[in-house]
Design brief:
Layout lengths: L1 E6 L2 H17 L4 H21 L3 E10 L2 E10 L11 E7 L15 H89 L4 H12 L7 E5 L15 H9 L3 E3 L10 E3 L10 E6 L7 E6 L7 H38 L9 E8 L10 E7 L5 E8 L4 H17 L6 H15 L5 E8 L5 E7 L5 E3 L5 E3 L19 E4 L5 E5 L12 H12 L3 H6 L1 H13 L8 E8 L7
Parallel strand pairs: 6-7
Antiparallel strand pairs: 1-2, 2-3, 3-4, 5-9, 6-8, 8-9, 10-19, 11-12, 12-13, 13-14, 14-17, 15-16, 15-18, 18-19
């Protein structure tokens, strides 16, 4: 169904507007959609009236599947075919059963106008009601949005607080881990440094080791002031800081700087006049009796903290103990070595026989005092040579060695053979019950006999070099060690001794090495002795003794002292 109107005046426009509202209502269009359509239609009519002229308005209601469509078109009357402007058009869906009969009311009827006015008010009321509902709904959603925003803000605050707490926990964990790593590093350093300090028994080596351990990790420079005049610093005449003097007097660590250090167990002092810009830490080297020196450290670039100070004080205490032990060891070693050398005899001058002896103390440890050599004549004119070794080391072993030496000389007065002398020494030592044992080898030379008589008790075998350069190891069955709880009689052995022969008696320190045993050392000794010429041994036995020791001892430090006695037979009957 199509309805058309001609609009020239405002009155015409009002009629058409009323008709559009009625027809839209008749088509079942909702109030909101109807009002929206009529409002847009009215605005276009106002534009048409402003332009002037006559305008044709057409309204069409077209049934469609599932509903219908209500269309309003506005175009100028007398529109030419060549005019390309399209008419104004609006369309809206409506109910399927269309009824445009309501549009037949005359717009000039006052009753119709009143009815249209009241209908518009009803539409306005409905719109206002819908607006109120929408405003209420908007207010509700606004409140929900506000509550949501508040919740989001609270959630953000909680997340931020949780993030801050997590960050604090992470920082605390990292700090604890760094502290644990630093503590482990200090403990590892303290253990390694302590092992290095206690491994040496030379106090000068310990003093030199301290700067190597502490610089540059815990100190920029290190000075060791020992009260006996020995210092670790190169300049032994340098002045010492006042804090070092206070540390020695008060027997307490001192910290000298232009600001308090706050180190545990350390007294704060003014900066040192020797180096005002560098903090000093002076720690006394304490012993059981009195301080033996002061360790002075200049601060590294990062300074010291409390844990560093505690570790350095503990390291200094251990260094002090190591120094005290080294000095006590050196003192005892000097006493034992002095006693040892005092007890070694001067070799006698014998016709047809040249003697050369060497004694070398151990290069490591207090392993001195047990080895000895001796040579003396018997009443029948023969010469007794002996090399022995007392188990144990130090002063006690040196005293026992002296007793054995004296007893051997006393037993030899009656002209006993080497085996008889060793048997008596065994009984003597066994009766003493001093928990010390000994080994020994005795060789007897007779001026008118080309036969060597010898006997051994638990001792390395003698080595005999023949005039032709052949070297024999006299390894006939020896007796057991002297002093063990065993009854024994030690037998004598003989070997040819032509002129030009050389006999080597020695202790195990010359040939024995822990990693190799004693047999390889004996082989090296025989090989070294075979390299000498016969005239070389006869003309310079002293020099030959030195040249024999060098290849056997130059390659390593020996843990035991060494005795060597060389006996060269000339056979000319005259003293060499």
């Amino acid at each position: 169904m199509i309805r058309t109107w001609s609009v020239r005046t405002v009155t015409d426009a009002a009629r058409v507007r009323i008709a559009a509202a009625r027809l839209a209502a008749a088509c079942g269009i909702s109030t909101v959609e109807r009002t929206r359509m009529v409002t847009a239609f009215t605005a276009h009519l106002r534009q048409c009236l402003t332009k002037g002229g006559a305008w044709r308005v057409g309204m069409t209601a077209t049934p469609m599947p599932g509903g219908g469509e209500f269309v309003i078109e506005v175009e100028a009357e007398g529109r030419r075919p060549q005019d390309t402007r399209r008419p104004w058009r609006t369309a809206i869906s409506c109910a399927e059963d269309l009824d445009l009969s309501d549009g037949d009311h005359d717009g000039d009827d006052p009753a119709a106008l009143a009815e249209a006015l009241f209908g518009a008010d009803e539409d306005t009321a409905l719109l206002l009601e819908r607006l109120d509902e929408q405003e209420a709904l908007v207010a509700f959603h606004r409140e929900e949005l506000h509550q949501t925003n508040q919740g989001v803000l609270a959630l953000h605050a909680e997340l931020d607080a949780a993030n801050q707490a997590q960050r604090r926990l992470f920082d605390a964990e990292q700090k604890a881990r760094r502290e644990a790593e630093a503590a482990r590093g200090r403990l590892t350093f303290l253990a390694d440094a302590s092992a290095a300090l206690t491994a040496s028994l030379n106090h000068e080596a310990i003093v030199r080791l301290l700067p190597a351990l502490l610089v540059p990790r815990y100190a920029r420079t290190v000075d060791v002031w020992l009260f006996d005049g020995t210092e670790g610093a190169p300049d032994r005449g340098a002045s010492h800081p006042a804090a070092a003097v206070l540390a020695a007097r008060r027997e307490r660590p001192q910290y000298a700087a232009d600001h308090p250090g706050g180190l545990p167990g350390v007294d704060d002092q003014p900066p040192s006049a020797l180096d005002p810009g560098r903090p000093l830490l002076c720690i006394p080297l304490l012993t059981r009796r009195a301080p033996q020196g002061v360790l002075t450290l200049t601060a590294p670039d990062e300074g010291w903290d409390a844990d560093d100070a505690v570790m350095l004080i503990e390291l200094t205490r251990r260094a002090s103990i190591a120094l005290e032990n080294a000095r006590r060891f050196e003192h005892n070693r000097d006493i034992a070595e002095t006693l040892q050398r005092a007890l070694l005899t001067d070799l006698p001058s014998t016709p047809g026989l040249t003697l050369a002896a060497r004694y070398l103390p151990a290069t490591r440890g207090l392993n001195i005092g047990g080895d000895w050599y001796d040579a003396f004549r018997q009443p029948d004119g023969s010469l007794i040579t002996v090399v022995g070794d007392v188990t144990g080391h130090g002063l006690h072993a040196a005293v026992m060695m002296s007793q054995l030496r004296t007893a051997l000389r006393a037993y030899a007065v009656d002209g006993s053979s080497p085996g008889q002398l060793l048997t008596r020494l065994h009984e003597f030592l066994h009766r003493l019950r001093m928990d010390l044992y000994a080994t020994a080898v005795i060789a007897r030379f007779h001026p008118h006999d080309d036969t060597l008589t010898w006997a051994a008790a638990g001792h390395p075998p003698p080595v005999l070099r023949a005039p032709d350069g052949e070297v024999l190891t006299l390894d006939a069955k020896p007796g057991a060690m002297l002093g063990i709880p065993l009854q024994q009689r030690i037998a004598d052995h003989t070997a040819p001794l032509p002129p030009g022969s050389t006999l080597a008696l020695y202790t195990d320190g010359l040939v024995e090495r822990r990693a190799q045993g004693i047999d390889p050392g004996i082989r090296r000794l025989t090989e070294a002795l075979a390299t000498f010429r016969a005239d070389e041994l006869g003309q310079d036995l002293e020099g030959s003794a030195d040249r024999l020791l060098h290849p056997l001892l130059h390659d390593s430090e020996h843990d035991d002292d060494v005795c060597l006695l060389l006996c060269h037979v000339h056979g000319d009957g005259h003293p060499a």
